[in-house]
Design a protein that fits this description.
This is AcrR family transcriptional regulator. It comes from Roseateles terrae. Keywords: DNA-binding, Transcription, Transcription regulation. This protein is mainly α and about 200 residues long. Helix content is about 70%, strand content about 0%.
């Protein structure tokens, strides 16, 4: 990986530098790590407050409810993940016939990273269901942007949008399978095999 390339999105909090952040960022970054690593429902507000080293008054000044914090967590995760994803796709070849290979190698970086815990958006919908409609909306927007980035890899054709949608569906399958097996080798192998056939059909 080039020195100036973005690493796969992982955890944000460095305990040694946490206190150098503004209070809102301390809370948000701490919540990001706890929600992604341990789950949204398993992480209570009191834990976020304690680990971000702020008072309850400070917390509620910036985040009136846990739902507000969840939404801002997902927005932050989206920005970080898409920045890495688009950077890595270009780094691995981008468009020009290397689309499936670029996609597979990009995902290999993330799925093999030590802090990988699946897709934050699929996880949030699985945990929250329809109790937080904003999370469902953000998940749909995130997946739309991921699909658009994949579409940009593909050669122009009448089926380009549909092909990108099929590849995005396969990507989600590889993410989920890696999450529950703990091994990305076979999901990525199957993704590449399937992707090459989708693109050539």
């Amino acid at each position: 990986m080039a020195a100036d390339s973005l690493p796969p999105p992982g955890l944000l909090v460095d305990p040694e530098t946490l206190d150098t952040l503004a209070a809102r960022d301390r809370v948000l970054h701490t919540a990001h790590d706890l929600f992604y690593r341990d789950g949204i429902r398993a992480t209570g507000i009191d834990r976020v407050i304690a680990e971000s080293r702020v008072t309850k008054v400070t917390f509620y000044r910036h985040f009136p409810s846990k739902n507000d914090l969840i939404i801002q967590y997902l927005q932050l995760r989206h920005e970080r993940w898409m920045a890495w994803f688009t950077d890595a796709l270009q780094r691995h070849g981008g468009a020009g016939g290397a689309g499936v290979s670029a996609l597979t190698e990009t995902l290999r970086e993330w799925l093999a990273s030590p802090n990988f815990r699946g897709c934050a958006f699929l996880n949030s919908v699985s945990e929250m269901g329809t109790s937080l409609p904003e999370a469902v909306t953000l998940t749909a927007q995130h997946k739309d942007e991921m699909r658009s980035a994949i579409q940009a890899l593909l050669p122009s054709s009448p089926q380009r949008k549909r092909t990108a949608a099929a590849l995005a569906l396969a990507v989600d399958g590889a993410i989920v399978q890696t999450q529950f097996t703990g091994d990305s080798h076979e999901p990525l192998r199957q993704l590449k095999w399937l992707g090459e056939r989708i693109v050539s059909s």
